Amino acid sequence: MAKSSRGKSRTKSTKSRAATRAPAKSKTRKVVDRARKYVYAFGGGRADGTAAMKNLLGGKGANLAEMAGMGLPVPPGFTISTEVCTYYYANRRTYPAELKKQVAQHLARIESLVGRNFGDPVRPLLVSVRSGARASMPGMMDTVLNLGLNDATVQGLIADSKNERFAWDSYRRFVQMYGDVVLGLKPEDPKQADPFEEILERKKQARGAKLDTELTAADLKELVAEFKAVIKEKKGTDFPSDPHQQLWGAIGAVFGSWQNARAITYRRLYGIPDEWGTAVNVQAMVFGNLGDDCATGVGFSRDPATGERRFYGDFLVNAQGEDVVAGIRTPQPLSKAAAIEDAAAQGIAEADRLPALEEIMPDLYKQLTKIAAQLEKHYRDMQDIEFTIERGRLYMLQTRNGKRTAHAAIKIAVDMVKERLIDRDTAIARVEPSSIDQLLHPGLDPKAEKTLIAKGVAASPGAVAGEVVFSADDAEAAAASSKKVILVRVETSPEDIHGMSVAEGILTARGGKASHAAVVARGMGKSCVAGCSDLDIRYDGEYFLARGSIRVGRGEWITLDGSTGEVFLGKVPTVQTEGESGDFAILMSWADKARRLKIRTNADTPKDAAVARKFGAEGIGLCRTEHMFFEAERIDVVREMILAADTDGRERALAKLLPMQRGDFIAIFREMNGLPVTIRLLDPPLHEFLPQTDADTNELAAKIGVDAGTLRARRDQLHELNPMLGLRGCRLGIVYPEIYRMQVRAIMEAACTVAREGAKVIPEIMIPLVGHVNELARLRKSSDELSRAIIAETGQKVAYTIGTMVEVPRACLTADEIAREAEFFSFGTNDLTQMGFGLSRDDAATFLPQYVESGILPGDPFASLDEGGIGQLLEMGVRKGRGARAGLKIGICGEHGGDPSSIAFCHRIGLDYVSCSPYRVPVARLAAAQAAIAGTRKKP
Amino acid sequence: MAKSSRGKSRTKSTKSRAATRAPAKSKTRKVVDRARKYVYAFGGGRADGTAAMKNLLGGKGANLAEMAGMGLPVPPGFTISTEVCTYYYANRRTYPAELKKQVAQHLARIESLVGRNFGDPVRPLLVSVRSGARASMPGMMDTVLNLGLNDATVQGLIADSKNERFAWDSYRRFVQMYGDVVLGLKPEDPKQADPFEEILERKKQARGAKLDTELTAADLKELVAEFKAVIKEKKGTDFPSDPHQQLWGAIGAVFGSWQNARAITYRRLYGIPDEWGTAVNVQAMVFGNLGDDCATGVGFSRDPATGERRFYGDFLVNAQGEDVVAGIRTPQPLSKAAAIEDAAAQGIAEADRLPALEEIMPDLYKQLTKIAAQLEKHYRDMQDIEFTIERGRLYMLQTRNGKRTAHAAIKIAVDMVKERLIDRDTAIARVEPSSIDQLLHPGLDPKAEKTLIAKGVAASPGAVAGEVVFSADDAEAAAASSKKVILVRVETSPEDIHGMSVAEGILTARGGKASHAAVVARGMGKSCVAGCSDLDIRYDGEYFLARGSIRVGRGEWITLDGSTGEVFLGKVPTVQTEGESGDFAILMSWADKARRLKIRTNADTPKDAAVARKFGAEGIGLCRTEHMFFEAERIDVVREMILAADTDGRERALAKLLPMQRGDFIAIFREMNGLPVTIRLLDPPLHEFLPQTDADTNELAAKIGVDAGTLRARRDQLHELNPMLGLRGCRLGIVYPEIYRMQVRAIMEAACTVAREGAKVIPEIMIPLVGHVNELARLRKSSDELSRAIIAETGQKVAYTIGTMVEVPRACLTADEIAREAEFFSFGTNDLTQMGFGLSRDDAATFLPQYVESGILPGDPFASLDEGGIGQLLEMGVRKGRGARAGLKIGICGEHGGDPSSIAFCHRIGLDYVSCSPYRVPVARLAAAQAAIAGTRKKP
User: Fold this and answer.
1) Handedness of CA A211, A213, A215, A221 (dihedral sign)
2) Are the Cβ atoms of A809 and B873 closer than 8 angstroms?
3) Which one of A386, A574, A724, B240 has the largest count of C-beta atoms within 10 Å of its C-beta?
4) Does A834 touch chain B (CB under 8 A)?
5) What is the distance of C-alpha A84 from the center of its chain?
6) Listed residue (A700, A776, A676, A784) closest to A734, CA to CA
C-alpha cells in the first residue's frame, strides 16, 4: 500500500514539474524567455512575490515580500531569485545577460521610494545584502550592512544624520564586513585572529578605551583608513569605492558562498540538495541608532516560554540590531506590564526601572502590536519579528514562525484551535515530539547557579543530583542507607543493573545513545549522560577528572541533565514538571484520535508497566526476561543453572527460578489487564550472567560451593569472541531446551492464574534471534505443546500467540518462510542495525561520532533508523511476511520505536505498532499522529 | 536476467506438469483410471519399465527393468510403483483397490517363468522384497530374503536343493529378517542386543561352535522354532506361515519405513521431498550357495582404483551375497591375470593360489565380461554389478554407476571420450570437483600401519607428520633447527601466524572449517585438522590427552590427514601425488574451455602466488595485506604504529613499513605478470596485532621502549566487545587515513617499479567493509588522488582500479549507490554470512554442529553458501550493482570461492570470477566448468 501511494505521488509530481517546465522549453517563447524575471521587488506597499514562493525567493525574501504585500512598512528592496544561483553554477559563475538591467531597474525603484540615490554624496542610499536559501542554513554567508558608503557618501550620511561618529562607525563596520565576507579576509580557522579585529584592538589600547563606544569619530575615521590599507596589503587591490562595484561584489560573494566548504557540509548533513541554490536580498538600510527617537527590537506574538497570548519582546533605544544580540546594554521589555513584572522580579524599585516601549512610544507600540497580531493571524502561527524605529517611523525587517519551549508549543497549538486559527491536525503537527520529553522529566531550576564540568550524550532525559559512586555494589550500599547516588562508569554491563536500578542517574565515559547504559537507563526511566569523553575515570583512586583538572571523588555531589548531556558540579536544584494534564492532555487526546499506529512499551517490571500505562501505552511490546535474571536473590540461582554440568543440574536450578519468573509475570499480567504483553524468551549470551574477574569468580565459587577452577574453566568456555553473534537467543533455546521450557511454563502458568482472577490476559511469546525458519518451527512446536498442556492442566483458557523477533538480516530476507511459523513479527532494529551495518553499538564510539561529524553518515543509525539501508530490510520483512500470512501483526521494539522520524517510517511501511521505553510513550503517540496526518495530507 | 529466466522455466514446468496430469483428471478416462498400472514386471526377456522411469520405479527397480529389457538374465520379478506409496499415505495407509489383483497377476507370471509356485510344498517359489526410492536412502528398510518359506515349503527346498542344512539355514535367516524388519523386533538403539542374535549366540555356546557354519541342520531347525517362539512372546501372534501374508507384511513394512524417523531425518538432511515415496521390488530368489557349481560376486567394468579398462571384481564359490560382504572367507579375483598379480603381491606361490572365475567357469566368465561391457556401453559409464551363479547359470542382480577414486574418475572420463562413448562435457561432469583435492596433496601411504587417536574436521587437505609443539614460538624455534612440527592449539589467533607458517600442519581442539586455523591453513596450503573435540590440551603440562587416555607430550610424533580429519599416533609414511599431468591435465584443459567464470586465488605472498599460478589461477582475487604485518621483523613496527600517541607517531612507524610493503607488492606483481592482483587494504581490528596477555605486553613494552602501563592502557582501549563489528576495514582508513595512504603508496610505487621492468601490472585496490557509499567515496577519492600523484611522480603509466569488498549486508542493499563509486565488487561471503546470519564463525562451534545434525540447517553455511538467504544478498548486489554501472566486474573472495556448489551459484548469478586458496584452484576450475555445462544443458 505504501508503495502504491508513493508511486502515485511520483507520477503526479513528474506531471506538475513538466507543466512548470513547459513554457521555458518552448522555442516560440524565446522572446518571453529573454525577458525572464530574475529580480522580485518588495516594499513601498507592494511585492512581486509571496510567502508561498520560498523556492524561488528563499525564506527571508518570501517573508519580506509577504509582509510588503500585506501593506506592512517594510524598507523597500528586491530579491535576486535562486534561479540566478542555478544559472551561475551552470554557466561558469556568470549571470544571465538580463540580470544587470533588472537589478538596475529595481535599485532605481528603491531610490525613488526612499528618495535617496546610490552613490549620491548628498543623500546616499545605503543597502544591506543578505543571502536567503529555501531552508535556513547557518553555514552560509554573513550579512553585509551599510553597503554604498565611501569617502564621498560618508559625508552625505554625516550631513543627513547630523552624527559624525555614527557615520564613521557605520563606514568602519561596512569596510570590515566587506573585507571579511566579500573579500574573504575572515580566517577559516576561528582560532586565528580577524585582521580588522586586531587593528581595532590596537586602536582601543592606544586610546585607553575599553569599549568600542569610547572611540571617537576621529578614531573611527583613522580605522577606516587602516582597514582599507590592510585590504590593499592582503588583496593587492584597493577597497572598491564604487557602490555598484560593492553591490556586485556582495552579490557574487553570496552566490559563491553556496559552494563553500561549510555550506556543502551543512547541506550534506541536513540532506539539502545542491540544486536548490540561494537567493540574494538587497534592501534599503534603516537605522535604529540615529538618536532617541530611534530604536530596534525583537518581538513574539505570544510568549515563547509559556505560550501565553500576549505580545512579548525586548528593545533598545538608539541602537542597532547587533547591539541587542551583543548584550552590552540590557534590552527593555516592550510592554509596561512586562517591565513592571521584570523589575519586581529583579528587586528594582518601580521608580528606578527603565520605561517600556509602550510608555515611551505608545503609538508606535500600538502599531507594532497590531502588526504582530496581523502577522500571526496571517501566518496562523506565533511570529518572531524584528523591527527598527528610525526617527519615529516603524520598519518591519523580518517575520518568521517563532521558536518556543515545548510547554509553549502545546499551549499555543491548543489555544489556536480554540481560536479557530488552525485545525486539530495542524495543532498536532506543530509540536516537536521529542521536545515533550522535557515535560515528563524533572528539569534543572533555570534560576539556579551552575558549574558545568563536562558534556556528553543526552542519553536519557531528566535532571538528577547525587553522590558519586564508581561501582554497582557501592550504589546499592549507598542506596540502602537512603543516599542518592550517581553511578559513574567507563561503560556499564549487565552486571551493573542492580546498581543502575537504585541510582538516581548514570554517567558513562563511553558509548552513545544506544549503549548499554543508555538503553537500560531509558528503560528504567533513569537519567543518563553517556559517552562523556571529557571524563577520565580512575576506579583505583575512586575519583574522576573532568576536563583533565577538575577532580571529583567518591561521595561528592554532581548533577546530571540527561536532556542536554550536561554534568554540573554539586547539587543543582531541580523543578518537577507537570506531566500529562491541561493543554498537554488535550493535545494528546487529539493525537490519539489521529494516529493509526498503536503504541506499546518496553517494560520488564510491573513498575515500568504501570508507568507506561499511565503514559498511554497500549500493551507491552517487549518484556525482556533476562533483566529479571539479574535481580539480587536470583543471579546466584541463574549462575548455578549456567554452571551445571548437565541437563539434570540445569533443570534443578531452573525449578528454583520457575516460581520467581511466574511471580514476575503474574504481577505484569495484572498490571496490563486487557492489553497484550509480548514476552521475549532468554536472549543474551549466558556468560553475561557470570562474574567477569577472577576475584569475583572465586567469591562466587565459595558462595555456591563449586570448585573455583571449575567455575573459571566454565566461564572461559562460555567466553565468546563476538558474543553478539554467538550462542544467544533462540540458539540457547535449541541447545538448552529446558531453559525456554521453564520460561514458557512460567508465562503460561502466570497467564492462567491471572485469567482465573477475572483479568484479560493476552500473552505473546516471542522467540528471539531467529535467522532460519527451522529454528522457529522447532521452538514454536515445543512451546505450543507445552502451552496447550498447561492450559489443559489448569483448565483455564488463555488465548496466547507465538511469534518472533526479526533482528537478523536473514530473517528479513526469508520473512516469507518465517511468517508461516510466526503469529507475529517484532522488528528488533537495534540488532538489525548492528548486523546489517556490521556495526557493534558498544564499539562504535571510536568512529561513529567522526562519521556523523564529517558527513559520512547523516546521523547515528542507532538513534534514527537508517531508512535507505536497514529500512529496506524492514520493508522486505513486511512485504514478504504479509505475503505469506495475510494480516500478520508486525511491530517494532528496538530503540527506534521511540524516535519520531523512525516512527514515521514505521507508519509508512504499514507496521501495526511501535514499542518504546515508558517515558517515550507520549512522544511516540504524538509522532505516530503526525505520521498519520502527513500520510493523509500526501494523499489525493 | 536471472530472474526472468527463472520466470520462464517456471511457466514451462507448470505447463508440462499440467500436461502430465490431464489424463488422470479427465472423467471420461475413469475406466482406464480404474485399471491404472501400479505393478511393473521385469525379467523373462522383457520389462514394463526402463532406466528412465526412476521416479516411478525407484533406482533399483528401474535398473532391473533396464537390464531385463536388454535381454540380460535377471531373475524375474516386479516393482510396485512409488505411486502406491503416495496413495498409501494419502489414504490412511491403505492400498488402491486394484493393487491386490495386479500383484497376484505378476506373482503368477514369476511362478510360470521359474516353474515354481508360491507356497508350493514341493517346488516352492521364494522371493526377495526390497525397498527402492528414487535416490539412494541408507536410512530405509533392509532387505527380506527367502520370503515364502514355512514348515511345509522348507521341505520342498530340502528336496529341491538336496541340502537340508542349506534349507534350514535359509529358513532360519528368513524368520530372523522377517522378525527384525517386518515385525520390528530389531532394537532402535544399536547398543541393545537383537533378540535373534542372542538366541543364536546361546545356541553356538551350547554347541561349542565358533562360527555359524559349525551349526548343523538340526541346530538350525531348533533355531527356527526358538525364533518363532520369541516372535510369539514379543508380538503376541504367531509367525505368519502363509506366504501371501508374509509378502503383504513385507510390502507394508517397506511403505511404512518411508516415514520412519531415520528416513525422515535422512530426507531432511539431503533435501529429498516427502512426496517422492519409495517403490517395492519383489523378485524370485536365486542361490549362489547350493554347491560348487554356484557362486556369487561383484564386478566393475573398469578398475575403480586406477580407472584401467579391464573387468575387475571378486567372487566366492558356493556363497551368498552377504558372505562376500561379511568377510569371513576371502573373495577371489574374477580374472586370471588379477589372481596371478594378487598372489604375487601377497607372496603366495602360483601353485598355492586360488583359481579365478575365468579359470573355473570360463564360459560364465566370458558371459559376465560380455554383459559388463554391454552394460557399460549402454549406460555410458563404468558399471558396478552384482551377480549370482546358481547351478551353472548366471543371474544379474544389480547394476549401477560404480564409485571410483578421483584418479580413476579422471582416467575413465578421459578414456571414454577417446572411445567416443561420451562427449567432453559429460566427461567434465563425471568428476566430483572436491575429490581432486586428493590428487594435489600428499596422502597417507594406504599400506602403512596406523593408530587412529582422534578425529576432527577435515579443514585443510594433505597428510603430514611432525613433532608436537604447543606454541607458535616453539614451532618457530623447532623449525629453526630443521625439525618438522605440528602446532597443536585449542584454537589459533593471528598471533600464531608465525608458528603456523613454519609448521607442517595445524591441529586445533575448537573451530570448524571456517575457523581461523582452517582459513589460514588453507591459505598457506598447510594441512589442518580443526575442531578436534576429542583432545584435551594442557598447555601448562605441555601435553594433550586424546580420548581421555592417550597422552601425547611435546616432541612426540603425530600424523594428520587434513583430507579426512584423522589424527594418528607416530609418523605414518605419506605418498606424494601426481599433480596436474596426463589425463588430469587433459580433463582440466577441457574444463578451462568449458567454463565462463575466471578463477583467481587468495594469495598473500609471492610463494602462494606462484603455487596458485602453477595451478591455473588467472589472477589474485584477494591479497590480504594484514598477513604481511604479522611477519616477525614487522610486527614490532606495526605495534609501534598502533601504539603511537598521535598521527605523527603513526606516520613515523608507517614510514618504516612502507618499504617493506612495497617490497612485498613488487614480488607479487612480478609473479603475477599479466594478471590482475586485487589488494585489500588493512582490514582487521588493530588490537589483533597487539600482545594479548599482560606478560607479553610487558615484554613488548621493554622491547620497544614504551611504558608498560601505557601499553596496557592502549591495548585495553583498543579492546572491543564485538571486534568483528568494530573499528576495522575502511573505518580504520577513515579514522587513521595515514595507514591507507601508506598502503596505497606501497601498491602504486611497486606497480610503477614492476611496470618499468616491462611487466604488465594490473593492480586493483580493494577497500574493505564498506557499508555506506560515503565511506567508499571518501577513501576512493583520496586513494585516487594519491595514485595519480605517484604515477605523475614516477612518470610510469599503470592502469589501476579501485573497488570494494562487499561483505556488509547494507552494502548489498545499497549496491546501486555503492557501484557508482566502485570499479569492481568482490563479495566477502565469510563476513556476509556472519553478519547476514548473525553468526560468528569463531563462536558457532557451540551450536552449529547441532544445528546441522538435527536438520535445522542443511549444512554449514561457511562451507557452502546459504543460497536461500545470504544468496539473496549476492543476487541483490549483482542486480543493483550492474543496474547502476553496466558491466561492473564482480567476483567472490570468501571461503565459498573454493566450494563447488557455491561456485555453481556464483556462475548462475553472473559473477565474473571466483577466488580461492591456491590448492583449491583446480577444484574451482572444474566446478566452474560443470556449472557452465549445467547452465548450457538447462537451456532449451
Assistant:
1) positive
2) yes
3) A724
4) yes
5) 33
6) A776
Does A227 score more than 80 pLDDT? yes
* Residue A167: C-alpha distances to residues A146, A148, A164, A288 (Å): 10, 12, 5, 13
Nearest CA in chain B to A516: B721
Query: Between chains, do A838 and B810 touch, taking CB under 8 Å as contact?
Result: yes
Higher pLDDT, A694 or B913: B913
Spatial contact of B746 and B661, defined as CB atoms under 8 Å apart: yes
Only one residue has cell 517397506, namely B254
Copy the grid coordinates of residue A355: 520605561
pLDDT at A495 exceeding the cut of 80: no
User: Taking CB atoms and an 8 Å cutoff, what residues of chain A touch B740?
Assistant: none
Place of cell 554442529: B849
Cβ–Cβ under 8 Å, residues B63 and B400: yes
Instruction: Please give, rounded to a whole number of angstroms, the shortest distance from the CA of A731 to a CA of chain B.
Output: 7
Residue of A nearest to B777 (CA): A856
Contacts of B843 in chain A (CB under 8 A): 720-723, 725-727
**Three-state SS for A144?**
strand
Please tell me the distance in Å from A872's CA to the nearest CA on chain B: 7
pLDDT band at B34 (very low <50, low <70, confident <90, very high): low
| pLDDT tens figures, A100-158 | 999 999 999 999 999 999 999 999 999 999 999 988 776 566 789 999 999 999 999 99
DSSP lists the bridge partners of residue A394 as A389
DSSP code, position B182: I
Chain A residues within 8 A of B265 when measuring between CB atoms: none
Exposure string over A88-111, b if 16+ CB within 10 A, otherwise e = bbeeeeebeeebeebbeebbebbb
Which pLDDT score is estimated for B11? Answer: 41
Whether A726 and B846 lie within 8 Å, measured CB to CB: yes
Q: Is B847 on the interface with A (CB under 8 A)?
A: yes
Cα dihedral B481, B484, B490, B493, rounded to 10, equals 70
- B516 catalytic, yes or no? yes
Query: In the beta sheet, which residues pair with residue B401?
Result: B383
How much is the pTM? 0.81
d(CA B65, CA B49): 5
CA dist list (Å): B569 to B94, B539, B545, B548, B918: 57, 19, 12, 15, 29
- Look at residues A903, A931, A926 and name the one whose alpha carbon lies nearest to residue A580: A926
DSSP A385-419: EEEEEETTEEEEEEEEEPP--HHHHHHHHHHHHHT
Q: Does B851 touch chain A (CB under 8 A)?
A: yes
Cα(B743)–Cα(B654) distance, integer angstroms: 9
What is the model's pLDDT at position B880?
98
Tens digit of pLDDT for each residue in A624-666?
A: 998 788 877 788 889 888 888 788 989 999 999 999 999 999 9
pLDDT above 90 for A794: yes
Residue A724 touches partner B, C-beta closer than 8 Å: yes
> Mean pLDDT over residues A816-834, rounded?
97
Interface test with B, best of A536, A731, A735 (most B CBs within 10 A): A731
Contact B847/A735, CB-based, under 8 Å?
A: yes
| C-alpha B47 chain-centroid distance | 36
- At B64 the three-state DSSP class reads helix
Buried b (16+ CB within 10 A) or exposed e, B543-565: bbbbeeeeebebeebbbbbbbbb
Out of A893, A896, A906, A907, the active site residue is A893
Is a pLDDT exceeding 50 seen at residue B598?
yes
Instruction: Look at residue A438 in the predicted model and tell me its pLDDT.
Output: 73
> At a CB cut-off of 8 Å and minimum separation 6, what does B236 contact?
none
- Which of these is catalytic: B532, B730, B752, B893? B893
| CA gap A482, A659 in Å, rounded | 30
